[in-house]
Specification:
- This protein is an alpha/beta fold.
- Helices cover 41% and strands 14% of the residues.
- The chain has 14 helices and 13 strands.
- The chain has a seven-stranded parallel sheet with strand order 3-2-1-4-5-6-11, with helices on both faces. It has a two-stranded parallel ribbon with strand order 7-10.
- Strand 4, helix 3 and strand 5 form a beta-alpha-beta unit.
- Helix 2 packs parallel to helix 3.
- The protein is globular, with a radius of gyration of 20 Å.
């Protein structure tokens, strides 16, 4: 009798230098996958990850980068921010199509996992949480909002490619992701760490930048490692239907509880909501030189504040006019039981940022 062998699994991580992509590459390597990262960035990845580089908006660039790869699984974690939602739709849908056409045509592709987010329920940046939204907790089977949204366009490209090339798929609607990636456009944990470092250096309190709804309301978040494990689970568990999954840690909290605990972890004096929002773009305006001096004095790896913090994104999340959390029943019922304590996730992130000299000790 022939000995049973495990089928070879080769992963292409699109956006492997981002928050979700870095965690996913780490998890795939730990599980023994042949792993390749595709990104525009030249950032160094962890040991064992092969890297290829391309402009995802250019189909010829992507096709050239993927010559000879033929992955069995594609994990799509990348996106490109544009000035309008119409441009977001055009560019981000094309990025999905540019990757799935050559990988699907190889004949090897079995599954594609796409990361989107809660703008699926809240609306696009141009009308974020301001028009009609879904009731919390958000459920995956709720219909799309009646507004253009690049997440919907990405899903449409995924579904069309799945029908054309006959692979299974999953969509992972994560909330705000906690993880480490320099130069990422949406990075709340690292942003708060940078805010705290500047506050401590200047002897100022660590002021909550959001509104009263977020200060008092219920919310949740998504650990990058948990997102990675859910994506791999959906891609490899036999018998799962092709469908979307909410992705969150499993606990819920209020910022009025979390803020002082984050402040304690970052060694600053917390100050909560009082009278009005005090957004980070207002609090941190003109702090580029202060960060550069701090980075040089403390020997930090990145002197460009814009590559460490994304004030606009954290302001957007922390000033929603509605509370925001997800229902995890679909994946729990299907067998995904992973859980991460959100405070522990912040703790791990801040330790990592200190060890890698992104923020001072």
């Amino acid at each position: 009798m022939n000995a049973e062998t495990t089928p070879v699994r080769s992963a292409l991580v699109v956006g492997g230098t981002g928050i979700a992509g870095r965690a996913l590459c780490r998890e795939l390597i730990a599980q023994g996958w042949d792993t390749t990262s595709l990104s525009r960035s030249q950032s160094i990845l962890q040991d064992g990850v092969k890297t290829v580089h391309a402009d995802l908006t250019d189909p010829r660039s992507v096709e050239a980068a993927l010559v000879g790869l033929g992955p069995t699984h594609v994990f799509f974690t990348a996106w490109s921010r544009r000035p309008t939602e119409a441009e977001n739709i055009t560019v981000n849908a094309a990025m999905v199509r540019n990757v799935l056409d050559p990988t699907g045509a190889s004949g090897n592709l079995r599954h594609v996992a796409l990361v989107t987010g809660l703008k699926h329920y809240l609306g696009p940046f141009e009308a974020y949480a301001t028009g009609a939204t879904r009731d919390t907790p958000f459920h995956e089977d709720e219909p799309r909002l009646d507004t253009p949204n690049f997440y919907y366009a990405q899903e449409d490209e995924l579904w069309q490619a799945a029908e054309r090339y006959q692979f299974t798929w999953s969509v992972h609607r994560s909330h705000t992701v906690i993880g480490h990636a320099t130069g990422n456009a949406m990075n709340m944990g690292q942003t708060l760490a940078a805010q705290a470092a500047l506050c401590r250096a200047e002897g100022r309190p660590f002021i909550f930048p959001g509104n009263e709804v977020q200060w008092n309301g219920i919310t949740d978040m998504t650990d990058a490692g948990l997102l990675a494990r859910q994506m791999i689970w959906a891609a490899t568990t036999p018998g799962l239907p092709s469908q979307a999954y909410n992705t969150a840690n499993g606990d819920v909290f209020r910022w009025r509880w979390m803020w002082p605990r984050i402040a304690q972890l970052l060694n600053v004096e917390p100050e909560g909501y009082a009278d009005r929002p005090r957004p980070l773009e207002e609090q941190m305006a003109g702090k580029e030189d202060a960060w550069r001096q701090l980075a040089e004095r403390e020997g930090l790896v990145e002197t460009d504040l814009s590559r460490v913090a994304s004030w606009w994104h954290s302001d957007s999340d922390l000033n929603r006019p509605i509370e925001c959390f997800t229902n995890m029943t679909r994946s729990r019922s299907a067998g995904f039981s992973d859980y991460v304590d959100t405070l522990a996730s912040f703790t791990t992130l801040f330790d990592t940022l200190r060890n890698e000299r992104v923020i001072p000790n």
